[in-house]
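User: Okay, second chain of the day. Same drill as before: sequence in, structure tokens out.
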Amino acid sequence: MDRVRLTYSDNIAHVTLTRGDKMNAVDPDLIVQLIAAGEEVAASDARAVVLSGEGRAFCAGLDVQSFAAMAGTDPEAMIMPRTHGEANRWQEVALIWRKVPVPVIAALHGVCFGAGLQIAAGADIRIAAPDTRLAIMEMKWGLVPDMGGMVLLPHLLRSDVLRQLTYTAQEIDGSQALDWGLVTSLAEDPLAEARALAMTIAGKSPSAVRAAKRLIAVAEGPASSAEVLHEESREQAALVGRPDQMEVIAAQMAGRAPVFK
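Assistant: Same drill. Structure tokens below.
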């Protein structure tokens, strides 16, 4: 893959956009490669994922020149087919990170516009440099967010804020994004902070972390309170007394770090 690099270390998957000379602008090849990376990570035994971009930016959005070459194609034929369950491939590139069964931490710097912001919204956690510029950029081009943003962003932003950012394509900095809930935290070195957080998560019970991500997804969805309570109990019953939980208890009693198989 020439647009995405996937490496593993210390039980952490590192997914890096490597089109730094283009500010990691999204073209069709990057979409294919990023989905493939997400699918590989989902099938791996990684305990956390760090998603980042090389060079001056996390992602500047769509590569306009690349997609201009597709101007003669039928928009409906390109966009409407569902290639990944409920989604098309343009949407799957963001939604895949919610399907990865372990926490995904996005490290944002430079700019995070349009498609890049929707990809970042798919992560569980977003850590941004204070001077990062973020925007729901599609209105600049007379378009609407169509890469999973309207599934993901309403869980992060108040309705009025989402509407303002969508209607105007307004750019905001990391501090404003933090105030509005678009990013989780700020750091001068967001990649280092993301890696440190991933290490912390990777040191927790792998089965409990995966269960927690599943449970949060149920709680955030359309499930009734009865269904959420049932899932709480079901996930907990599957953890109690199992090897990972017993190792956590043994490590706590011995004052050492747990070692999971």
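The mean pLDDT is 96.

User: Thanks, on to the next one.
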